[in-house]
Amino acid sequence: MLFKQLLRIKVFISFFAVIATTCCFAQSASTDTEQKRGAAPKSSYRFSYTPTYQFDTDLDSGGQFDVQRHLLRFDTVRSIDKQWSVGLGLSFDYEHWNFTNRADLPSVDLWDAIYRPGMSIPVFYAPAGNWRFGIIPSIDFAGASGAETSESFSYGTVLSAAYSFGPQLMLGLGAGWFERLGESKLFPYVVINWKINEQFRLTNPFRAGPVGPAGLELVYTPTTNWEMGMGGAYRSYRFRLDDSSTVSDGIAEVEFWAPFIRAGRKIGKHYRVDIHGGVMVDGSITIENEDGNEIGETDYETAPFLGITLKGRF
Fold first, then answer.
1. Residue 16 is assigned to a structural domain of this protein
2. Cβ atoms of 225 and 241 closer than 8 Å
3. What's the chain's Rg over C-alpha atoms?
4. Most buried residue, 53, 92, 190, 257, by most Cβ within 10 Å?
5. Structural domains counted in the chain
Protein backbone atom coordinates (compact mmCIF):
# COMPACT_ATOMS: atom_id res chain seq x y z
CA MET A 1 0.00 0.00 0.00
CA LEU A 2 2.79 2.45 0.90
CA PHE A 3 4.56 1.63 -2.37
CA LYS A 4 1.36 2.33 -4.34
CA GLN A 5 0.90 5.68 -2.58
CA LEU A 6 4.49 6.74 -3.25
CA LEU A 7 4.20 5.62 -6.86
CA ARG A 8 1.00 7.63 -7.34
CA ILE A 9 2.61 10.77 -5.89
CA LYS A 10 5.68 10.28 -8.10
CA VAL A 11 3.53 9.91 -11.21
CA PHE A 12 1.56 13.11 -10.57
CA ILE A 13 4.67 15.13 -9.68
CA SER A 14 6.40 13.85 -12.82
CA PHE A 15 3.33 14.83 -14.85
CA PHE A 16 3.48 18.35 -13.42
CA ALA A 17 7.20 18.59 -14.13
CA VAL A 18 6.75 17.55 -17.76
CA ILE A 19 3.87 19.99 -18.33
CA ALA A 20 5.65 22.87 -16.61
CA THR A 21 8.93 22.27 -18.41
CA THR A 22 7.21 21.97 -21.78
CA CYS A 23 5.24 25.17 -21.21
CA CYS A 24 8.30 27.08 -20.02
CA PHE A 25 10.25 26.10 -23.11
CA ALA A 26 7.26 27.03 -25.26
CA GLN A 27 6.94 30.36 -23.47
CA SER A 28 10.63 31.11 -23.95
CA ALA A 29 10.48 30.31 -27.66
CA SER A 30 7.26 32.28 -28.08
CA THR A 31 8.68 35.27 -26.21
CA ASP A 32 11.88 35.28 -28.27
CA THR A 33 9.89 35.13 -31.51
CA GLU A 34 7.50 37.89 -30.48
CA GLN A 35 10.32 40.10 -29.22
CA LYS A 36 12.08 39.75 -32.56
CA ARG A 37 8.85 40.84 -34.21
CA GLY A 38 8.59 43.79 -31.82
CA ALA A 39 5.41 42.45 -30.19
CA ALA A 40 4.72 41.97 -26.51
CA PRO A 41 4.50 38.34 -25.22
CA LYS A 42 0.92 37.07 -25.19
CA SER A 43 1.26 34.17 -22.76
CA SER A 44 1.59 34.10 -18.99
CA TYR A 45 2.55 31.23 -16.70
CA ARG A 46 2.07 30.83 -12.96
CA PHE A 47 2.88 28.09 -10.46
CA SER A 48 2.61 27.69 -6.71
CA TYR A 49 3.44 25.11 -4.07
CA THR A 50 1.81 25.31 -0.62
CA PRO A 51 2.59 22.91 2.22
CA THR A 52 0.41 23.45 5.33
CA TYR A 53 0.04 21.76 8.67
CA GLN A 54 -3.27 21.61 10.56
CA PHE A 55 -2.46 21.11 14.22
CA ASP A 56 -3.91 18.41 16.45
CA THR A 57 -7.67 18.94 16.79
CA ASP A 58 -10.36 17.27 18.92
CA LEU A 59 -13.25 15.46 17.28
CA ASP A 60 -16.64 15.86 18.97
CA SER A 61 -17.15 12.10 18.56
CA GLY A 62 -13.92 11.40 20.45
CA GLY A 63 -10.26 11.33 19.54
CA GLN A 64 -8.01 13.76 17.68
CA PHE A 65 -6.54 14.26 14.23
CA ASP A 66 -3.97 16.41 12.44
CA VAL A 67 -3.46 16.94 8.70
CA GLN A 68 -0.50 17.65 6.42
CA ARG A 69 -1.53 19.21 3.11
CA HIS A 70 0.53 19.75 -0.05
CA LEU A 71 -1.06 21.86 -2.82
CA LEU A 72 0.44 22.22 -6.31
CA ARG A 73 -0.89 24.66 -8.93
CA PHE A 74 0.17 25.45 -12.50
CA ASP A 75 -1.70 27.88 -14.76
CA THR A 76 -1.10 29.28 -18.20
CA VAL A 77 -3.20 31.81 -20.16
CA ARG A 78 -2.78 32.73 -23.82
CA SER A 79 -4.30 35.81 -25.45
CA ILE A 80 -5.93 34.87 -28.76
CA ASP A 81 -6.70 38.47 -29.70
CA LYS A 82 -7.76 41.69 -27.94
CA GLN A 83 -11.01 40.11 -26.77
CA TRP A 84 -10.40 36.40 -26.20
CA SER A 85 -7.97 34.48 -24.01
CA VAL A 86 -7.84 30.79 -23.11
CA GLY A 87 -5.76 28.84 -20.64
CA LEU A 88 -5.00 25.60 -18.87
CA GLY A 89 -4.98 25.00 -15.12
CA LEU A 90 -3.48 21.93 -13.43
CA SER A 91 -3.73 21.11 -9.75
CA PHE A 92 -2.70 18.31 -7.44
CA ASP A 93 -3.57 18.14 -3.72
CA TYR A 94 -2.21 15.53 -1.34
CA GLU A 95 -3.37 15.26 2.27
CA HIS A 96 -2.05 12.98 4.99
CA TRP A 97 -4.46 12.53 7.93
CA ASN A 98 -3.37 11.15 11.28
CA PHE A 99 -6.20 10.01 13.61
CA THR A 100 -5.38 9.18 17.25
CA ASN A 101 -7.35 7.99 20.31
CA ARG A 102 -10.46 8.00 18.20
CA ALA A 103 -13.88 6.61 18.93
CA ASP A 104 -14.71 6.04 15.29
CA LEU A 105 -17.85 7.14 13.59
CA PRO A 106 -20.15 4.13 13.79
CA SER A 107 -18.79 1.18 11.77
CA VAL A 108 -16.51 3.43 9.68
CA ASP A 109 -12.84 2.92 8.83
CA LEU A 110 -11.26 6.35 8.44
CA TRP A 111 -8.54 7.23 5.93
CA ASP A 112 -4.87 8.17 6.03
CA ALA A 113 -4.27 9.85 2.65
CA ILE A 114 -6.34 11.78 0.10
CA TYR A 115 -5.36 12.49 -3.53
CA ARG A 116 -7.04 15.18 -5.63
CA PRO A 117 -5.64 15.90 -9.13
CA GLY A 118 -7.60 18.29 -11.35
CA MET A 119 -7.63 20.19 -14.62
CA SER A 120 -9.47 23.31 -15.81
CA ILE A 121 -9.74 25.25 -19.07
CA PRO A 122 -10.44 28.94 -18.38
CA VAL A 123 -11.88 31.05 -21.20
CA PHE A 124 -12.24 34.83 -20.89
CA TYR A 125 -14.00 37.32 -23.16
CA ALA A 126 -13.57 41.10 -22.92
CA PRO A 127 -15.80 42.89 -25.45
CA ALA A 128 -15.42 46.55 -26.28
CA GLY A 129 -16.04 48.52 -23.12
CA ASN A 130 -15.26 47.60 -19.53
CA TRP A 131 -16.89 44.19 -19.19
CA ARG A 132 -15.04 40.91 -18.70
CA PHE A 133 -16.74 37.51 -18.81
CA GLY A 134 -15.30 34.15 -17.83
CA ILE A 135 -16.17 30.47 -17.97
CA ILE A 136 -13.95 27.84 -16.34
CA PRO A 137 -15.00 24.21 -16.84
CA SER A 138 -13.04 21.73 -14.76
CA ILE A 139 -12.71 18.09 -13.77
CA ASP A 140 -11.02 16.45 -10.83
CA PHE A 141 -10.56 13.08 -9.15
CA ALA A 142 -10.78 12.93 -5.35
CA GLY A 143 -10.21 9.72 -3.44
CA ALA A 144 -8.61 8.22 -0.37
CA SER A 145 -5.70 5.83 -0.86
CA GLY A 146 -7.03 2.63 -2.39
CA ALA A 147 -10.16 4.21 -3.91
CA GLU A 148 -10.99 3.49 -7.53
CA THR A 149 -10.08 6.44 -9.77
CA SER A 150 -13.04 5.73 -12.07
CA GLU A 151 -15.42 6.19 -9.10
CA SER A 152 -13.78 9.43 -7.85
CA PHE A 153 -14.70 11.73 -10.75
CA SER A 154 -16.24 15.21 -10.30
CA TYR A 155 -16.90 17.98 -12.80
CA GLY A 156 -18.44 21.43 -13.08
CA THR A 157 -17.93 25.01 -14.17
CA VAL A 158 -17.50 28.55 -12.84
CA LEU A 159 -19.14 31.54 -14.55
CA SER A 160 -18.29 35.18 -13.86
CA ALA A 161 -19.06 38.68 -15.12
CA ALA A 162 -17.16 41.75 -13.93
CA TYR A 163 -17.16 45.44 -14.80
CA SER A 164 -14.20 47.83 -14.53
CA PHE A 165 -15.30 51.17 -13.13
CA GLY A 166 -11.81 52.53 -13.79
CA PRO A 167 -8.22 51.51 -12.99
CA GLN A 168 -9.02 51.39 -9.26
CA LEU A 169 -12.06 49.10 -9.16
CA MET A 170 -13.33 45.95 -10.87
CA LEU A 171 -16.53 44.48 -9.43
CA GLY A 172 -18.77 41.62 -10.48
CA LEU A 173 -20.57 38.40 -9.62
CA GLY A 174 -19.76 34.76 -10.18
CA ALA A 175 -21.29 31.36 -9.57
CA GLY A 176 -19.98 27.83 -9.48
CA TRP A 177 -21.83 24.58 -10.12
CA PHE A 178 -20.23 21.19 -9.52
CA GLU A 179 -21.38 17.58 -9.61
CA ARG A 180 -19.33 16.05 -6.78
CA LEU A 181 -19.73 12.31 -6.31
CA GLY A 182 -23.50 12.26 -6.47
CA GLU A 183 -24.08 15.70 -4.95
CA SER A 184 -24.75 18.92 -6.90
CA LYS A 185 -23.16 22.00 -5.35
CA LEU A 186 -24.07 25.57 -6.34
CA PHE A 187 -22.49 28.67 -4.81
CA PRO A 188 -22.37 32.41 -5.63
CA TYR A 189 -19.40 34.68 -4.98
CA VAL A 190 -18.30 38.29 -5.42
CA VAL A 191 -15.62 39.16 -7.97
CA ILE A 192 -13.62 42.13 -6.71
CA ASN A 193 -10.32 43.89 -7.26
CA TRP A 194 -10.48 47.25 -5.49
CA LYS A 195 -7.39 49.41 -5.11
CA ILE A 196 -8.52 51.47 -2.14
CA ASN A 197 -5.34 53.58 -2.16
CA GLU A 198 -1.64 53.13 -2.84
CA GLN A 199 -1.24 50.71 0.06
CA PHE A 200 -4.56 48.89 0.49
CA ARG A 201 -6.62 46.73 -1.86
CA LEU A 202 -9.53 44.30 -1.49
CA THR A 203 -9.41 41.24 -3.73
CA ASN A 204 -10.15 37.51 -4.18
CA PRO A 205 -7.20 35.49 -2.84
CA PHE A 206 -8.19 32.18 -4.46
CA ARG A 207 -9.71 30.94 -7.68
CA ALA A 208 -13.24 29.59 -7.38
CA GLY A 209 -13.49 25.86 -8.03
CA PRO A 210 -14.78 22.49 -6.82
CA VAL A 211 -13.80 23.16 -3.20
CA GLY A 212 -15.58 26.53 -2.95
CA PRO A 213 -15.72 30.23 -3.85
CA ALA A 214 -12.81 32.64 -4.23
CA GLY A 215 -12.87 34.19 -0.75
CA LEU A 216 -11.99 37.77 0.22
CA GLU A 217 -8.71 39.34 1.37
CA LEU A 218 -7.66 42.84 2.46
CA VAL A 219 -4.05 43.39 1.39
CA TYR A 220 -1.63 45.98 2.80
CA THR A 221 1.50 46.84 0.79
CA PRO A 222 3.90 48.94 2.89
CA THR A 223 6.75 48.70 0.35
CA THR A 224 7.22 47.45 -3.20
CA ASN A 225 8.65 44.13 -1.94
CA TRP A 226 6.50 43.38 1.12
CA GLU A 227 2.78 42.82 1.57
CA MET A 228 0.49 41.56 4.30
CA GLY A 229 -3.05 40.32 4.13
CA MET A 230 -6.00 39.10 6.16
CA GLY A 231 -9.04 37.32 4.81
CA GLY A 232 -11.03 34.13 4.72
CA ALA A 233 -12.80 31.54 2.60
CA TYR A 234 -15.29 28.67 2.89
CA ARG A 235 -14.10 25.22 1.82
CA SER A 236 -15.98 21.97 1.18
CA TYR A 237 -14.73 18.86 -0.60
CA ARG A 238 -15.87 15.28 -1.09
CA PHE A 239 -13.79 12.20 -1.84
CA ARG A 240 -14.29 8.51 -2.46
CA LEU A 241 -13.33 6.03 0.28
CA ASP A 242 -11.29 2.87 -0.17
CA ASP A 243 -13.39 0.18 -1.85
CA SER A 244 -12.09 -2.37 0.67
CA SER A 245 -13.06 -0.35 3.76
CA THR A 246 -16.04 -1.04 6.03
CA VAL A 247 -18.07 1.43 3.96
CA SER A 248 -17.04 0.09 0.56
CA ASP A 249 -17.01 2.85 -2.09
CA GLY A 250 -18.43 5.28 0.47
CA ILE A 251 -18.01 9.05 0.38
CA ALA A 252 -16.53 11.46 2.91
CA GLU A 253 -17.08 15.21 3.01
CA VAL A 254 -14.99 17.79 4.87
CA GLU A 255 -16.27 21.35 5.45
CA PHE A 256 -14.85 24.39 7.25
CA TRP A 257 -14.38 28.17 7.24
CA ALA A 258 -10.77 29.39 7.16
CA PRO A 259 -9.93 32.95 8.28
CA PHE A 260 -6.20 33.64 7.81
CA ILE A 261 -3.41 36.20 7.94
CA ARG A 262 -0.27 36.21 5.83
CA ALA A 263 2.96 38.09 5.14
CA GLY A 264 4.86 37.84 1.87
CA ARG A 265 7.95 39.13 0.14
CA LYS A 266 9.03 39.30 -3.49
CA ILE A 267 12.17 37.41 -4.47
CA GLY A 268 13.48 39.02 -7.62
CA LYS A 269 11.11 39.86 -10.45
CA HIS A 270 9.28 36.55 -10.79
CA TYR A 271 8.97 34.90 -7.37
CA ARG A 272 7.22 35.45 -4.05
CA VAL A 273 7.20 33.66 -0.69
CA ASP A 274 4.21 33.92 1.68
CA ILE A 275 3.95 32.66 5.25
CA HIS A 276 0.36 32.24 6.38
CA GLY A 277 -1.54 31.04 9.40
CA GLY A 278 -5.09 30.89 10.63
CA VAL A 279 -7.79 28.67 12.06
CA MET A 280 -10.40 26.34 10.62
CA VAL A 281 -13.74 27.00 12.30
CA ASP A 282 -17.16 25.36 12.17
CA GLY A 283 -15.52 22.23 10.76
CA SER A 284 -17.31 18.94 10.16
CA ILE A 285 -16.72 15.48 8.69
CA THR A 286 -19.58 13.50 7.15
CA ILE A 287 -19.55 9.87 5.97
CA GLU A 288 -22.03 8.51 3.39
CA ASN A 289 -22.49 5.06 1.92
CA GLU A 290 -22.16 4.32 -1.80
CA ASP A 291 -25.73 5.50 -2.41
CA GLY A 292 -25.14 8.88 -0.76
CA ASN A 293 -27.04 8.11 2.46
CA GLU A 294 -25.45 9.64 5.57
CA ILE A 295 -24.26 7.07 8.11
CA GLY A 296 -22.04 9.20 10.36
CA GLU A 297 -21.18 12.83 11.11
CA THR A 298 -19.00 14.67 13.58
CA ASP A 299 -17.92 18.25 14.14
CA TYR A 300 -14.42 19.16 15.25
CA GLU A 301 -12.97 21.92 17.39
CA THR A 302 -11.30 25.06 16.05
CA ALA A 303 -8.16 23.91 14.25
CA PRO A 304 -5.11 26.19 13.89
CA PHE A 305 -2.95 25.83 10.78
CA LEU A 306 0.35 27.19 9.48
CA GLY A 307 1.86 27.11 6.00
CA ILE A 308 4.12 28.62 3.40
CA THR A 309 3.59 29.32 -0.31
CA LEU A 310 6.16 29.68 -3.07
CA LYS A 311 4.79 31.44 -6.16
CA GLY A 312 6.29 32.08 -9.56
CA ARG A 313 5.09 34.09 -12.55
CA PHE A 314 6.54 34.37 -16.06
1. no
2. no
3. 21
4. 92
5. 1
- The H-or-E segment that residue 238 falls in is strand 226-240
Please say whether the beta carbons of 186 and 175 come within 8 A.
yes
Q: Are 222 and 198 in contact (CB under 8 A)?
A: no
Domain assignment of residue 21, yes or no: no
- What is the phi/psi pair of residue 148, to 5°? -75, 130
- Per the DSSP assignment, residues forming a β-bridge with 188 are 175
Residue 118's CB is within 10 A of a number of other CB atoms, namely 20
- Domain CATH for 91: 2.40.160
Q: HSE on the CB side for 312, CA within 13 Å?
A: 10
pTM of the prediction? Answer: 0.84
The pLDDT tens digits along the chain (314 residues) read 433 444 444 444 444 444 444 444 444 444 444 444 444 458 999 999 999 999 999 999 888 999 999 999 999 999 999 899 999 999 999 999 998 887 655 445 578 899 999 999 999 999 988 999 999 999 999 999 889 888 999 999 999 999 999 999 999 999 999 999 989 999 999 999 999 999 999 999 988 888 888 899 999 999 999 999 999 999 999 999 987 667 778 999 999 999 999 999 999 999 999 999 999 999 999 999 888 889 889 999 999 999 999 999 98
Domain of 261 in residue numbering reads as 47-313
Q: Is residue 33 part of a domain?
A: no
